[in-house]
Specification:
338 residues; globular
Length: 338
């Protein structure tokens, strides 16, 4: 599908089939591609077909990078076509697993919210926030939907603001406040004959659309390329001229952390790290009709990996091991002094 194809002109069934074929050609990207294919099947109304793809991923002999995300998506999809009991069981399992990935928390909480389980949705959003954001002064970009969703549900429940609601208000950049956007009485304004109320609702809808477009404009993180020690040694042995870019593995790791902190300090949201391999990089270089020794290919390779869903969010969530592969917690490794 071309990036500029209008949404209303997309043949979702055909696009799902194309993505399935592509997954067969690129097994290393199969998880990301099949999740996209399942999303297209859901949009086409083929929810059983989407569930079959989720089951295919979950039963695969290849370990999944984001198994809790797949389960959350499966639960949300099942509930939409009548399998409520199974969906609830999966949602309970996702919550009990306490994933460090924010996306599963958002998906299962929104599934509960869409079926008017507002108290359970609030509890789920709160569990995710407690796990991922306790003692975190600057919430990572990927965790913001937890705070925004929690604010929305609590507004519908009519409960008083707490510290996380205040934080959500602070992170929200739209000119229309979250309180206005999440006002449960908004639906009534659409039937109003008062021009002022209708104009106010138009302003709110424009603000929501602007926020949605901003999120879509950054569909994958701004990612920095990371080479594990063995891959970097193989890369430099094959292409010695790259030693000017990578004097040592230790310096490479320090440069990654410094670059990400600099980007964060400049206000760049949604940051991540992608891990390279020599065969993958050589294949990318060949596709670009260029030499792997060309240093200008390195950031392009990083962006391509991020676009394929290979990026890991930075900074790591609280309690997660460091991105460098040392096995130590991020706060005890490259996160010291962050």
């Amino acid at each position: 599908m071309r990036p500029d194809t209008p949404a209303e002109n997309v043949d979702h069934t055909a696009e799902a089939a194309r993505l399935e074929r592509t997954a067969g050609l690129y097994p290393e990207d199969a998880e990301h591609l099949l999740l996209q294919a399942a999303a297209h099947l859901e949009l086409a109304g083929d929810r059983p077909g989407a569930s079959a793809l989720y089951d295919r991923l979950l039963s695969s002999s290849t370990p999944l990078e984001r198994p809790h995300l797949v389960r959350a998506l499966k639960a949300s999809n099942l509930w939409e076509y009548g399998h409520e009991a199974e969906a609830r069981a999966i949602i309970d399992g996702v919550r009990a697993a306490s994933p460090r990935d924010p996306a599963p928390w958002v998906i299962v909480a929104e599934a509960l919210e869409s079926h008017d389980e507002l108290e359970a949705a609030q509890e789920t959003f709160t569990e995710g926030a407690t796990l991922l954001l306790t003692d975190v002064t600057d919430p990572p970009y990927a965790t913001r939907p937890i705070l925004f969703g929690r604010h929305r549900v609590r507004r519908m429940l009519g409960v008083a603001h707490d510290d996380w609601d205040a934080l959500a208000d602070t992170l929200h950049s739209s000119p229309v406040s979250l309180d206005e956007l999440h006002d449960p009485k908004r639906v009534w304004s659409l039937g109003s004959e008062n021009p002022a109320e209708l104009q106010a609702e138009i302003s709110r809808l424009r603000a929501e659309l602007g926020a949605h477009r901003e999120a879509l404009s950054r569909p994958f993180p701004v990612a920095v390329l990371h080479w594990p020690a063995d891959e970097l040694a193989e890369l430099l042995a094959a292409y010695p001229s790259l030693a000017t870019e990578y004097p040592s593995h230790e310096e490479h790791l320090a440069t990654i952390e410094a670059s990400l902190r600099e980007l964060s300090a400049s206000g760049t949201p949604n940051l991540g790290i992608v891990t390279g391999t020599v065969p993958s990089y050589e294949a990318f270089s060949a596709s670009e009709a260029s030499s792997p020794s060309d240093t200008t290919l390195l950031p392009q390779y990083a962006t391509t990996l991020a676009a394929r869903g290979r990026a890991t969010s930075w900074p790591p969530q609280r309690g997660v091991v460091c991105w460098c592969g040392s096995g130590r917690g991020y706060g005890e490794c490259h996160g010291v002094g962050a």
